[in-house]
Amino acid sequence: MTQTSTQTPIASTDRKLSKAEGWKKRSNNLREPVATELLQDTTHFTEDGVQILKFHGSYQQDNRDNRVKGQEKDFQFMLRTRNPGGFIPPQLYLTLDRLSEEYGNSTLRATTRQGFQIHGILKKNLKVVFSSIIKNMGSTLGACGDLNRNVMAPPAPYKNRPEYILARQYADNIADLLTPQTGAYYEIWLDGEKAITAEEDPAVKAAREKNSNGTIFTEQEEPIYGTQYMPRKFKCSVTVPGDNSIDLYSQDLSLVVITNAAGELEGFDVFAGGGLGRTHNKEETFARVADEICYVAKEDVYDLVKAIVATQRDYGDRTERRHARLKYLINDWGVDRFCAKVEEYFGKKLATFKPLPEWKYQDFLGWHEQGDGKLFLGISVENGRVKDEGEFLLKTALREIVQKYDVPMLLTPHQNILIYDVSPENRKEIQEIIDRCGIKSETAIDPLVRYAMACPAMPTCGLAITESERVIPGILERIRTLLEKLGMPEEHFVVRMTGCPNGCARPYMAELGFVGSAPEAYQVWLGGSPDQTRLAKPFEEKVPFNGLEAFLEPIFVCFKQGRILGESFGDFCDRVGMEFIRQFVTNYQSTGSMTTETTELEVTSSNENNEEKGSATATKVRRRISVRDEIYNELKDEAARQGKPITQLATEAISAYLKQIKEKE
Ligand code: SRM
Ligand code: SF4
Hints:
With 665 residues, the chain is of the alpha+beta class. 32% of the residues lie in helices and 17% in strands. It contains 20 helices and 23 strands.
């Protein structure tokens, strides 16, 4: 099944191809109309230009805060870096920092895929920004568009753990293997000069050019992608057994490093078919977790990656972009048919997936030994936004540290930053900079904040329905206040928020996910796991921003009453199910005595009070009685003092009273 340059990568279809296929085909491997329109004295690109520019790593946006009816939009551009595994050398960081001040909105944003974004660049400044990044060890090629995106890897820079070193190395190699080969990028942004890039592994180059079973197009500028690139974006990660810092189940393709007892690489377990983007009210679009596909020996790994890419390239849906990701192909075909097609490109049978340990999420914040005598420091960056604001001077601190100590950094999939290769003698001074600049240590941050993520949404994202990054700090504060009010001051769980259903901050993997669904309203998802190993479920379509407390209170009370000892919020919601929580919410009346004159107190009418055991599946008939506020408050205080749930104390008190009366009679 060898492809030639005259063949298209598109499986034959009678249906009309999507508009995007036309843009790609007409672009002459990503050159036009970007090259021509860049030279024009305009503030923005045409639709074709906008689409092709994405492949170069830039989105045309407008500042939505500045929209005025009847006036031209306030056009600006976002640039996204492509840096496998989140690696940012010091020279690149200082360049990005400077560019964001000179040409951007003075902030940098660490993304959920370990890249940086600069927002707010004007069209006339695009070339200088692109060329500065490229000349300073960076790239934006393929950070966006229908091709392989930034390859993720666990950010921990352990030097004494071979599996971590291998994961990083293979993330780089897969990124190289699938990097677009078109000359367009350097022609447009560097006037044809080739950038000095790190040496590519010769094995990767050979693998890209090897034409096994139709995986590549011969005599084409793009051997793997052809003229039409992929049907849609394609996302990969490489990780080590047990480390789910990369949110493995949400990726199109993931490799898990398998080593022998001596720490030598043997091969990889392969997952495929994850993806989160969906559209409200379109059931045919959905978030999906990746399937276990196979094991592959190390010498065959590039052939296998190419075989999976070729399967999606040739059979992914190019007629409907909402149905074009690999997850839909695998879902429609089933894993067996998908594997059979992959085997045709791979040229041999797929081997059986090897057992893996449980996945754990890790954020690597704080100071750590990296295994070679040096240290790394994980710094929490709220929603990835690197900025200076009031007394909080994160941007200043990072600039000072990188300038003074020439240390590289690794961006994490959780929008945080690790600086590494720190000599122990510099630790004290670096910590002093951090403290002086008002940056909190990981233990001083509310864990609700530490484990939360939000996408940028307003004002830069053209697809946002609601706010996200700008409102999540307030929402987390409100959740904390509510938890305190409900007697759960220490409780925390993974909260993620996006301004629309595309899922950029991976809300469908969170324990509590907010997804913008209408102006100032969010769809709420419950039941993801603390380690992001299963999908959450939609619970409510449109929860008003102002009514969050009233909405969340009964859910939290249900959790408090029904949890098993040590059970997390997401695990609880998943165990009892959405219907159980809905039922509880329907029967619930607020215990919020601060605002009401009387309080509805719930009493369980079974003779066994099993709240402490928290068996949410036990059948209990719940009834309500009202008590005056001051009595409720006294009960609450006493319950807290005795460490009992209020309901239990109320039941004990009432039954003691009734017993007393009976005895008197
Ligand atoms: Fe995303 C589109 C931001 C990770 C799913 N994403 C966008 C755009 C470019 C909006 C647009 O198309 O005009 C957003 C730019 C906002 C802005 O102003 O900066 C945007 N996505 C982001 C980032 C910056 C969010 C963040 O908080 O960090 C992340 C950049 C990652 C990177 O460095 O490459 C980002 N986006 C994701 C993820 C998470 C991931 O990859 O792990 C997802 C869900 C996983 C997935 O792809 O299934 C994601 N973004 C989308 C989608 C829906 C794709 C789909 O299959 O339906 C879109 C819309 C689209 O592609 O049409 C989108
Ligand atoms: Fe924009 Fe939606 Fe992605 Fe948020 S989730 S950045 S609103 S596309």
